[in-house]
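RECORD TYPE: inverse folding
INPUT: structure tokens
STRUCTURE:
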């Protein structure tokens, strides 16, 4: 599917919180689901963050699942979707590549560990489990010479993260960060 840059449409879409009816209207008007802005965010990236139903509509409409990292600063949509397991799983089921890296060479486990745990913890644990079970290596170094096991997590989720990594034979021993919702 073609890519088309249109900053105005993408910004309007974000301001409207990826409204489901707007999503359908844009598609009906011939706006490509792969429309992106100057930072590389597509309609799908925005919908993943703001409106689950809109994200699922865009996936069904043929939005690019694996991204074209060579042309954009933003990683593939699956790296954004780690905050919502249902969207993450829908992307996998539609053919997204769980092993696709970001421009910074982060794998999906690394991207998961960088998220806001006090806000998305339940989904992040499910994504972490799925990714480790699929064979994603949490020790793979990104361009900053760090890996998923180097990332801190919120104190409220530390035990579950340690348990999850241990289940797959990895030792996680970073000190906790934060302390839940402030």
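DESIGNED SEQUENCE:
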């Amino acid at each position: 599917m073609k890519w088309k840059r249109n900053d105005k449409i993408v910004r309007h879409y974000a301001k409207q919180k990826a409204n489901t009816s707007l999503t359908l209207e844009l598609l009906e008007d011939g706006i490509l689901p792969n429309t992106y802005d100057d930072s590389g965010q597509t309609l799908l990236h925005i919908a993943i963050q703001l409106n689950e139903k809109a994200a699922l509509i865009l996936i069904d409409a043929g939005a690019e699942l694996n991204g074209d990292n060579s042309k954009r600063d933003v990683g593939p949509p699956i790296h954004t979707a780690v905050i919502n397991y249902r969207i993450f799983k829908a992307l996998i089921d539609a053919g997204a590549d769980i092993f696709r890296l970001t421009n910074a060479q982060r794998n999906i486990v690394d991207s998961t560990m960088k998220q806001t745990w006090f806000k998305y913890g339940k989904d992040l644990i499910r994504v972490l489990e799925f990714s480790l079970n699929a064979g994603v290596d949490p020790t793979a170094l990104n361009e900053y010479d760090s890996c998923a096991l180097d990332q801190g997590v919120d104190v409220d989720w530390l035990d579950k993260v340690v348990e999850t990594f241990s289940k797959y034979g990895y030792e996680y021993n970073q000190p906790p960060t934060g302390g839940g919702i402030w």
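NOTES: The longest helix spans residues 117-134.
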